[in-house]
Structure formats: C-alpha cells, structure tokens
Design brief:
Elements (H helix, E strand, L loop, with lengths): L4 H7 L8 E4 H7 L3 E5 L9 H14 L4 E5 L3 H13 L3 E5 L5 H9 L3 E4 L4 H11 L5 E4 L5 H7 L1 H10 L5 E5 L4 H12 L7 E6 L4 H8 L22 H6 L5 E6 L1 H15 L5 H11 L2 H7 L10 E5 L7 H10 L4
Parallel strand pairs: 2-10, 3-4, 3-6, 4-5, 7-8, 7-10, 8-9
Antiparallel strand pairs: 1-2
The protein binds ligand PLV.
C-alpha cells in the first residue's frame, strides 16, 4: 500500500541540505576565508525548520492533533509549514509588532494567526494557555531537547562539506536554541574545540547578560530592532553550553547589524533580517578581527563559518526604514 503524504512527512526531514559558500567579499573583510552556511535558503527562510521539523514529526507520531507555536516570526513559519505537511492544524501566536508579510505567509500556510503582547515572551504566555487544550501541543521555538537535536544536522552538513574543522563558527543568539544545537553538533562530530562566536544585539542581549552574571538574567524589555533575538531570558541549556564548548559571547549595536544587512545585500545579493545581520556584523564591524588580535580565537585562524540564519521579516522597504530609524541613510 502506498503511504499518504502525511505519513511520508512524518519520516522524511523537512529541511534542505543548505549550500556552504565561500564568500569572496566577506573573506576580503575578515582576512581569512569566510564560509556562509546559507540557512536563508531553507523552505521556510531560516534554520528554524531543522529543530522545529524534528519536534513536529516526533509529536505527530505521538498523536498530536493541533500545533501551537509562539514566535518572533521564523519559528512560527517553520511550525506552520511542518503542520501543513503533516496535515495537522496550527495556531501561531506572535507579538503585535509582527510584519504584515509574516502574517500573510503564515495564513498562506493555512495557520490561524493570533497577535498577543508587545514581545515574544508575552505571546509565549498566550501560547502556553492555548496548549492546555486537549490534543494541542506547544512547539517551543528554542527551548527543547528535540529542537536542539534537530539543529545538530547543520553541523553534520558542515563536517561533510569542509572535512576539517573551521577556526571559528559565528552565529546569532535569541533564546539560544541554535547555539545549543550547534554546540551539541560540534561535540557529536568531534569538533568541540571550535570556538563559537555567539552574537546578540544590544537590547536583546539576554545571553550576554547571563554569561556575565553566571546565571540566567531576565532583561526588563527588548529594545533592539532584532525582534527575533528578543527572548528576555535565554534557555538554561544555552548557558550550560558555555561549560562544554568554547563560546565567546559578543554584543553588537543595532546600527552594526543593519549596516551588515545592507553590505551583505550588496556583496552577496541576499537580504536577511536583523537577527542575521547581528552574526554578519561580527565580520563587517571588525569584531572578528579584534577577537583574533586579542588572541581569543587561537593562534592562526584558518577559516570562519558564519551561519546565515536568514529571516522572513524583511524586504527592501523595511531595510530602508531600519536605516532611516538608525540614522544610516
Ligand atoms: N527566532 C525565534 C525567536 O524569536 C522565532 O520565533 O522565530 N536568527 C533568526 C532569523 C531567528 O528567527 C532566530 C530566532 C534566531 C536567529 C535565534 O535563534 P535562537 O532563538 O534559537 O537562539 C524570539
């Protein structure tokens, strides 16, 4: 008997094996070969589909009848996409500031959209309420072992493409799910010595605040334009990773993230949202060069991988608006 599309969706991964591109332009800036792990070309526009796809498949096998996901945007799009493929209805709860294009995309995936609160933490409270309903399952955007396990596939792909470990890996931190998954992946493939440069924007720097304090810290508010990095408190697992991997927690300014978005668009002809601009700013703002000069990345950096985490909450008009807001035009 042939299996149904929904049965197929329970076993085949939802994510794509993404390209690893050597960037001439970013290598020129960094002074070492820079490789881009292009998560922006995932079917849902961000790496989120790796962990969320894995989570949704597991709960679908266990009889989940409705998925609910609170999100700054990208996790929600991944959850809605997976739900459609699995034939399960989905409700996505987002902050009121969410862009119309993200809402439209979610509706296009067939999801019900609810707007609640000013930031993700408030939307999350609403999602947790909804998930109490019979048969409903909450999809955590970053704080769950299945999410981290799903994200590890990114590192296996890096190992397959590169063969030898890079000198450093740069990624953005929101709630810390990507960091936790990449850190676990590095251990899994025997690359735990690779330093991770974990970047946040000021005003969404809950990981940096936790690292500095040595315990979880809840920011009073999210003031950065990188709303998808805006979890007021990171997952406890993200902080625990600092004991297992070499993690350098770094904070960039919003204007550096937005400048990086503009330069990346011109250099590589790819448009990403501020959450991803934060990671790219590690190269463009000179942060990586500074870390290298200070000897914090080992003696000779052979290469760098930047996780181009992607993001849907951006278009040319929004980039212009961000530039104007930050006095960059
Ligand atoms: N965004 C989450 C959490 O938002 C979301 O709901 O979509 N880069 C992009 C493009 C992202 O969308 C996110 C997370 C991150 C980086 C950070 O990933 P994390 O949360 O796993 O550290 C509030």
């Amino acid at each position: 008997m042939e299996s149904s599309p929904a049965d197929h969706a329970k076993s085949e991964p939802f994510h794509t094996v993404t390209p690893l591109l050597e960037s001439w332009a970013l290598s020129q800036v960094a002074g070492v070969p820079v490789f881009l792990k292009c998560e922006n070309v995932q079917p849902t526009g961000s790496f989120k589909i790796r962990g969320i796809g894995h989570f949704c498949q597991e709960v679908a096998k266990n009889g989940c009848r409705h998925l609910v996901c609170s999100s700054g945007g990208n996790a929600g799009i991944s959850a809605a996409y997976c739900a459609r493929k699995l034939g399960i209805p989905a409700t996505i709860v987002l902050p009121e500031s969410t862009s119309l294009q993200v809402v439209r995309r979610l509706q296009g995936e067939g999801a019900e959209v609810q707007l609640a609160g000013k930031v993700w933490d408030e939307a999350n409270l609403r999602a947790q309420e909804l998930a109490k309903r019979d048969g409903w399952v909450n999809v955590p955007p970053f704080d769950h072992p299945l999410i981290w396990e799903g994200h590890t596939s990114l590192v296996r792909e890096l190992k397959a493409a590169l063969g030898t470990p890079p000198g450093a890996l740069v990624l953005a931190v929101g709630g810390g799910g990507l960091l936790a998954g990449v850190s676990a992946g590095l251990v899994e493939v025997g690359w735990q010595q690779v330093p991770i440069v974990a970047v946040e924007t000021r005003g969404a720097h809950s990981f940096n605040a936790a690292v500095e304090a040595g315990r979880l810290v809840t920011l009073p508010s999210i003031t950065s334009v990188a709303k998808c990095l805006g979890a007021k408190t990171v997952a406890a697992r993200a902080l625990a990773c600092t004991r297992e991997s070499k993690i350098l927690s770094e904070v960039v300014e919003d204007r550096e993230a937005v400048d990086a978005m503009q330069r990346f668009l011109d250099d590589e002809r790819m448009l990403v949202e501020p959450a991803c601009g934060a990671a790219l700013a590690a190269v463009y703002s000179g942060l990586l060069g500074r870390l290298q000069a200070e000897g914090r990345l080992g003696p000779a950096l052979a290469s760098v991988v930047v996780v181009v985490c992607g993001g849907n909450s951006i278009d040319s008009r929004e980039l212009q608006a961000l530039r104007a807001q930050l006095g960059r035009s």
